[in-house]
């Protein structure tokens, strides 16, 4: 659990980190470390905004690599080919921004089926 509610990230902070990753100002490992504070926390790190939570999950996983010695193994960081291309990360950001607009227009119940089939493939 995050001790101070002021420490819970905002959408603006998510945008800053995601754009930094896309623009090359932030590494995949840095984005992972930043997001891990909430993604790996007990009780989800008290992130109330489901769109922020969704973005944190994405940022946390953009450093995933395929183990060069074992093609079926993936892990955070390390040697190997990234699972997600830079183009996929940028498209995921555009998709997330659009989903934020849809969510804000109709903040229905959050859940895994909120935006079915919308994740870009890559």
Which terms summarize this structure?
mainly alpha
Structure description:
- The protein has one domain (10-39, 50-105).
- It is 47% helix and 7% strand.
- The chain contains four helices and three strands; from the N terminus they run αααβββα.
- Strands 2-1-3 form a three-stranded antiparallel sheet, with no helix packed on it.
- Strand 1 (64-66) and strand 2 form a beta hairpin.
- The radius of gyration is 15 Å and the shape is globular.
- Residues 117-122 have low confidence and may be disordered.
- Residues 102-122 are annotated as: Disordered.
Whole-number count of domains: 1
Overall morphology:
globular
The mean pLDDT is 84
Distance between the termini: 32 Å
How helix-rich are the residues, as a percent range?
40-55%
Give the low-pLDDT segments. 117-122
- Sketch the topology as an H/E string, one letter per element: HHHEEEH
**How many alpha or pi helices?**
4
Give me the oligomer status. single chain
Largest sheet: 3 strands, antiparallel
* β-strand number: 3
> What percentage of the residues does DSSP assign to strands (E)?
5-15%
Order of strands in the sheet with the most strands? 2-1-3
Helix- and strand-based class?
Answer: mainly alpha
Question: How would you summarize what this structure contains?
Answer:
By secondary structure, this protein is mainly α. Helices cover 47% and strands 7% of the residues. It has one domain.
């Amino acid at each position: 659990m995050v001790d101070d509610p002021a420490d819970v990230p905002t959408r603006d902070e998510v945008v800053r980190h995601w754009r930094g990753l896309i623009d090359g100002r932030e590494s995949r490992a840095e984005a992972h470390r930043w997001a891990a504070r909430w993604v790996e926390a007990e009780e989800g790190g008290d992130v109330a905004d489901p769109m922020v939570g969704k973005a944190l999950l994405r940022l946390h996983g953009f450093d995933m690599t395929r183990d060069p010695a074992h093609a079926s193994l993936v892990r955070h960081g390390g040697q190997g080919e990234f699972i997600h291309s830079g183009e996929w990360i940028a498209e995921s950001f555009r998709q997330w921004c659009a989903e934020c607009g849809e969510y804000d227009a109709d903040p229905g119940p959050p859940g895994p089926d909120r935006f079915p089939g919308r994740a870009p493939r890559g």
